[in-house]
Amino acid sequence: MTDLATAVAAGDLDALVRLVDGLCSAREWPRVVELIDRCRHALEQRGLQLWPAAEYAEYRLALDAPAEFAGSVVTEEAGRFALGPLWEVAASTHPWEPLAPHLAPGPARAMAAHERVLRGEDLSDDDTIDRNILELPLRLLDWEPSYVLATFRSDEADFDAPPIPEMTEVNLPEAGEDVSDDESVEALVDIGAVWSQQSNGSAAAASVGGTAEQAIAALGHDRCALAGATAADAFARIAWAGASGGAYGRRRGGPIGRFIAWWLGAALADLAWPVDSEDLEQAVRDLRWVLWEPPGFTGGWTACIAVESSGSGLSWALEAVDSHREEDVLADAEGPSGS
Predict the structure, then answer these.
(1) How would you classify residue 106: left for phi > 0, otherwise alpha for psi between -120 and 50, otherwise beta?
(2) Considering the entire predicted model, what is its pTM?
(3) Is residue 131 part of a domain?
(4) Both 180 and 291 in a single domain?
(5) Which tens digit of pLDDT belongs to each residue from 111-140?
(6) Does any domain span residue 94?
């Protein structure tokens, strides 16, 4: 049996990661906890930079360990450099009933509950969940989409985007007249905030008097590809983007994506928050939703939507995109040998 004190003292990060893998395969969860504690102590007492091994071990506990161990690592700050927030990781593989008793009170616990809601659980009757964290229903409503869910594994994760409908290239009309609607524009830009602030992307929005096509034109385009969408389709795309970290940013998590979609719907419909779900359903169904892509878009992350309100005569458009940096794409194409 490997002596954990000796392994930590050696300070070999690669060896420690392999050790974590071995302990998890053997389901030696108390020893994983001990290894985390020793790595943290080595950093605090001797300055050994072993926090990557500790964070990886915490991620593996959240993902693979029984609920008592998984819940113990779920906090707001845990998983800063993991593939996703640890409350999302833990809730992706643990049903609410066994996980809940091991989650400390606080925002992370509520977020884990909302992740279980995205995965189909109805937690409406659970009075132990703080309703003030997201102010969203603790069940999925009939009009909502099947939100795209993250899949976490030991060394990678899948954050698949919702399918994009077949689009048609169109010439756009002249841009509509700019209308001041700061709340709606802010809610739109927030969809791609991580892409623009932490990654390689950008996010811009416009609010105009006119059609959805005129709102897209107000972003500087005279041509684009677009397709009509249902409110559910649009919410799925918005929630996926709002949850995503894009190429380089920190993932916010599925419940945050759902919140961003609801917040946007309320802002566009001028509904007070917290919003009544029936009022929101009717409002978003009355809007015209469009998914579109800018000219020359060749891949990466995209959340380009336009929304038209026939009742108010207003329309809004968001252009949010992200991609890997060119030097990273070239490095991947060349491979490790540089050939």
Answers:
(1) left
(2) 0.94
(3) yes
(4) yes
(5) 999 999 999 999 999 999 999 999 999 999
(6) yes
C-beta of residue 295 within 8 angstroms of C-beta of residue 309: no
d(CA 207, CA 219): 10
Please indicate, yes or no, if residue 334 is contained in any of the structural domains. Answer: no
Total number of residues shown for the chain: 339
Residue where a domain stops, chosen among 123, 152, 181: 152
As given in the structure block, the two tokens for residue 26 are 């053997």
Burial of residue 11, with CB atoms counted within 10 A of its CB: 0-12 exposed, 13-18 middle, 19 or more buried: middle
Q: How far apart are CA 48 and CA 226, in angstroms?
A: 53
User: Which of 46, 37, 55 lies closest to 11, judged by CA?
Assistant: 46
Which residues lie closer than 8 Å to 5 by C-beta, 6 or more apart?
Answer: 38
Cis before 274 (ω within 30): yes
Per-residue pLDDT tens over the stretch 272-311: 999 999 999 999 999 999 999 998 888 889 999 999 999 9
Domain end, chosen from 104, 124, 152, is at 152
What distance in Å separates the CA atoms of residue 162 and residue 236, rounded to the nearest whole number?
A: 7
